[in-house]
């Protein structure tokens, strides 16, 4: 960080500061939140940070692993599949607002930062009701309904792309990019080291398969069907299955010497360092990380994401010759061929890697943390 001293000069009056970061549900919300928390701590080592998530969700495991405390709300989302399950929803919402009231009363935050996901809404809404400054990070090019509502009374809204005035008041928007974890953005792990970590061979081309933070059923089906076909082609595979289908695939995959498989990869910086090419969903953070990691990618957008934004994300890069794309309904017939073709074509890999790297943003975490601290210091002066 080049301007830590400057920041301290500006934010000195905040003396550490107390921050709540609210949100979660998927990795796409959790990991940028952790990146922002780390950047705040780097600028203000005395800052106190508390996360608020939803009980039973991924953040309750991943946030403590990153060294932060988290409180879980009883909140849940609307279940489209089963109306009966929604009977308790109003009660859960009321309970969550009561839980938030007590969290705010006890923790007394100077600011609340919302990153999207179930817990963001009650926490930011309650904070706004108490006139506590609120900040929002929206990683997608389409804002969700709750962020749009919260944006009206937020102090500042950090976004990845231009054109977000469709959703938020223009004067509150700051374009920062999406905050990629330092372990990835500042990684200097060598390929050899990374392959050794996964128990794979140093000289074989390596395909990394990731289905977003929860795994991707369509990608998994293709990889499972062809799992024995990679070795004869001289390829090895790092495969993240996601939790729901892990049991179905892991025992077979783990028995193969050229395959490393798990339901989740905690060491993504090593996975990127090991990979020659990547197959991935195109959620906002996966895309941001692949730009930073400079990898040739075949995207398979999740077709049911809001406003089909994963296709928008992937297409932006495909149109600039910076990635390949296979639509979800074509994976069965096309994905394995695309993988083997790209694996053979070193020149294409290089072009895609160079072109995707143009879109890398490495310091969004610092930009967001700096802006929050400066804004708060300004409002206290
Ligand atoms: C199905 C769905 O609604 N997906 C949304 C969700 O995706 P999802 O949670 O999959 O989010 P992203 O692709 O944005 O990010 C995934 C994150 O999980 C991490 N990771 C993933 C796999 C793994 O094994 N280990 C690991 O650490 C990645 O490094 C990345 O940091 O949030 C994104 C950001 O709001 C949205 O753009 C996606 O559309």
Automatic annotation (TrEMBL):
Keyword list, A-Z: Cell cycle, Cell division, Cell membrane, Cell shape, Cell wall biogenesis/degradation, Glycosyltransferase, Membrane, Peptidoglycan synthesis, Transferase
Top EC class, one word: transferase
Classification via Pfam families: Glyco_tran_28_C, Glyco_transf_28
The protein's name: UDP-N-acetylglucosamine--N-acetylmuramyl-(pentapeptide) pyrophosphoryl-undecaprenol N-acetylglucosamine transferase
Membrane-protein topology: Peripheral membrane protein
Binding site for UDP-N-acetyl-alpha-D-glucosamine: 26-28, 140, 181, 213, 265, 310
Species per Swiss-Prot/TrEMBL record: Parafilimonas terrae
Entries under InterPro entries matching the protein: GlcNAc_MurG (IPR006009), Glyco_trans_28_C (IPR007235), GlycoTrans_28_N (IPR004276)
The reaction(s) this protein catalyses: di-trans,octa-cis-undecaprenyl diphospho-N-acetyl-alpha-D-muramoyl-L-alanyl-D-glutamyl-meso-2,6-diaminopimeloyl-D-alanyl-D-alanine + UDP-N-acetyl-alpha-D-glucosamine = di-trans,octa-cis-undecaprenyl diphospho-[N-acetyl-alpha-D-glucosaminyl-(1->4)]-N-acetyl-alpha-D-muramoyl-L-alanyl-D-glutamyl-meso-2,6-diaminopimeloyl-D-alanyl-D-alanine + UDP + H(+)
Gene Ontology terms describing biological process: carbohydrate metabolic process; cell division; cell wall organization; peptidoglycan biosynthetic process; regulation of cell shape
Domain Glycosyl transferase family 28 C-terminal: 206-365
């Amino acid at each position: 960080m080049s301007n830590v001293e400057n920041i301290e000069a500006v934010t000195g009056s905040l003396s550490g500061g107390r921050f709540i970061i609210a949100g979660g549900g998927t990795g796409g919300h959790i990991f940028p939140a952790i990146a922002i928390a780390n950047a705040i701590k780097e600028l203000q080592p005395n800052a106190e940070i508390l996360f608020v998530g939803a009980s039973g969700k991924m953040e309750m495991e991943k946030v403590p692993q990153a060294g932060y405390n988290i409180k879980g709300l009883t909140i849940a989302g609307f279940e489209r599949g089963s109306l009966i399950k929604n009977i308790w929803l109003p009660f859960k919402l009321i309970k969550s607002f009561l839980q938030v009231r007590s969290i705010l009363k006890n923790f007394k935050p100077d600011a609340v930062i919302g990153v999207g996901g179930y817990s963001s809404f009650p926490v930011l809404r309650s904070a706004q009701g108490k006139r506590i400054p609120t900040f929002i990070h929206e990683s997608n090019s389409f804002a969700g309904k709750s962020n749009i509502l919260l944006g009206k009374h937020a102090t500042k809204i950090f976004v990845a792309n231009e054109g977000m005035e469709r959703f938020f008041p223009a004067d509150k928007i700051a374009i920062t990019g999406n905050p990629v974890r330092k372990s990835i953005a500042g990684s200097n792990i060598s390929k050899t080291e990374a392959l050794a970590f996964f128990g794979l061979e140093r000289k074989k081309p390596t395909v990394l398969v990731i289905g977003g933070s929860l795994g991707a059923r369509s990608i998994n089906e293709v990889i499972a069907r062809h799992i024995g076909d990679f070795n004869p082609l001289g390829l090895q595979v790092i495969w993240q299955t996601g939790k729901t289908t892990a049991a179905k695939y892991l025992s077979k995959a783990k028995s193969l010497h050229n395959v490393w498989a798990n339901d989740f990869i905690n060491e993504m910086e090593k996975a990127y360092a090991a990979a020659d090419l990547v197959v991935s969903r195109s959620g906002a953070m996966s895309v941001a990380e692949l730009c930073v990691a400079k990898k040739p990618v075949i995207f398979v957008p999740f077709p049911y994401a809001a406003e089909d934004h994963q296709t928008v994300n992937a297409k932006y890069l495909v149109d600039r010759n910076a990635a390949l794309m296979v639509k979800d309904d074509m994976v069965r017939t096309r994905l394995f061929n695309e993988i083997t073709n790209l694996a053979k074509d070193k020149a294409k890999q290089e072009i895609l890697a160079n072109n995707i790297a143009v879109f890398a943003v490495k310091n969004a975490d610092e930009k967001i943390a700096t802006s929050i601290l400066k804004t708060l210091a300004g409002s206290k002066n």
